[in-house]
TrEMBL record:
GO cellular component assignments: ATP-binding cassette (ABC) transporter complex
Compartments it resides in: Cell membrane
Lineage start: Bacteria, Pseudomonadati, Pseudomonadota, Alphaproteobacteria, Sphingomonadales
The name this protein goes by in its record: LPS export ABC transporter permease LptG
Residues that span the membrane, as ranges: 12-34, 67-85, 106-124, 281-301, 308-329, 341-359
Organism: Glacieibacterium arshaanense
UniProt-listed GO biological process terms: lipopolysaccharide transport; transmembrane transport
Taxonomic superkingdom: Bacteria
Main localization of the protein described in the UniProt heading: membrane
Membrane topology annotation: Multi-pass membrane protein
Amino acid sequence: MAGRIFPSRTIAAYTAKMFLVRTFAFLAALVVILQTLDLLGESSNILAAGNSEAQLWYYVSLRAPQIAALFLPFSVLLGTLVTLATLNQNSEVVIFKSAGISAHQILAPLIFAALGIAVLNFAFNETVLVRANATLDVWKGSDYKKLPSGPKTVTNSWVRGGDDLFNAETVTGTGAATQLRNVTIYDRSGNRLQRVIRATAARPVSGGWRLTGVRAFDVNRGVETASEVLDIKSTVIPAQFTTVSVNADFVPFWKLLGDIREQRDAGKSVDQLIAKANHKISGPLSAVLMPLLGAVAAFGLARSGHLFFRAVIGLALGFTFFVADNFLMAMGSFGNIPPLLAAWAPFLLFFLIGEAVLFRTEE
């Protein structure tokens, strides 16, 4: 089987090495250039918060992984085009084909190398990148001041239970130990507001919530009453307060799966999270497509003068894939298309396009 995929191990190692060297050279160059430009734009904001040179390097350590992850698929595309164009220009593709090596066998070492890059990309994204995203988002949100420490408290949490709306200023604890502070409940029947209940604290009890420090305003009678303790029946459960919005860019894949189950159990929409979870796989896997989309640069006679035109076609196919991928993910985030379609349709579509072009021209 291996002999059918790689008729010559020497040729396979030669082409894979060319591809990997050029891919990571492009990636390193892009990261250095774009990180330098980005740092020039942000350094004034970082230093204005009373930071020093150490914080500039800290910013670089957080921003560089984002740039690397963003441009890795693009670097794979450029590495593919340069590798295949070089092989074509030097008539090495002609030599390979005259030895009985098919177009797919020529591309196989690049595809397997790209698969290795995809695995490394996934591991990098789910270990380094998610932490960098979360930390930089908090740091940037505090105008590059010292990061807050200590446990996080859910604030300004809104929950709907049937027709009623609950708002808690702060939420601490989980499950039966959940404590709500400064609670406002809008008791509605249909689309009409019946009561507005305000309480200094609330905790879950069987079938509802126990409120303390209560003031209830009856909308129909225009009368406000006060009581020390009030038990109300409600379908709202503690998990609806403690399962805050999840940003898929800030959590690794294996934790995101648990967050999706938690959000679903709390009655919240999870379509966007499902799309992001699938894209955490299809995104890195897109590197495998780049040798196929760039294959048009490998074939055809270099002396015909069409080599540059073929490279441009390969570049255009790659860019079109990136545009389609981002567009469908945006559509999936708004719930306009199913999450699985948003995450996987571009990959499958451009795989078929690449295969069709390859068979049409070479096989």
